[in-house]
Amino acid sequence: MARALDDTAYRGLKTATRRLVDATGGIDPAAASTRVGRATMAQYYSPADRDEAVFVPLDVIADLERVTGEPLVTRQLARLSGFDLVPAEAPLPATDTATAGNPVQDSLLLGASLSVRVGEYQQVAIAAAADGKLSDAELAAEVAAAHAILQAAQNGYDTLLRLQQDRRALAVLRAAQGTAGGGA
Fold first, then answer.
1. Fewer beta carbons within 10 angstroms: which end of the chain, N or C?
2. DSSP letters for 127-166
3. What is the pTM of this model?
């Protein structure tokens, strides 16, 4: 039986599941937060041939995404269907000087926040490479810094999509008011 998506899409779901488990704190905290055990949880993100048809159930996704506050698998599913997942309330830029309501300044702050995270990652990577070896602690620090970049980028993307949606809704509202006021 042919599947609707290509192998890349299914591997992307496995990767998103792995990121979700990692965001939960690892396999043990993830398993403890759901109805499944450690071994089953590992199958959900395993790229091994024997696990290629084993995917995380919806209730387990819901549990893990509630724990992490990050809809990593849900976002991937939305993308596979041609949609963007946008939070009901977009987060403000991660800075003390956020200017809610000023889209130009918020856009600049989002870019600055992302640049800061990239700079932090570069510092960690340079420090890790200094001795020509990569210890477990250095690798963990790089993973954490890369995750911070992903979060900053996703927050920025969500905020910009929300702004775009708000503008479209406002245009529709204005058009409807113009039509309602211009008749009879």
1. N
2. HHHTTS---HHHHHHHHHHHHHHHHHHHHHHHHHHHHHHH
3. 0.56
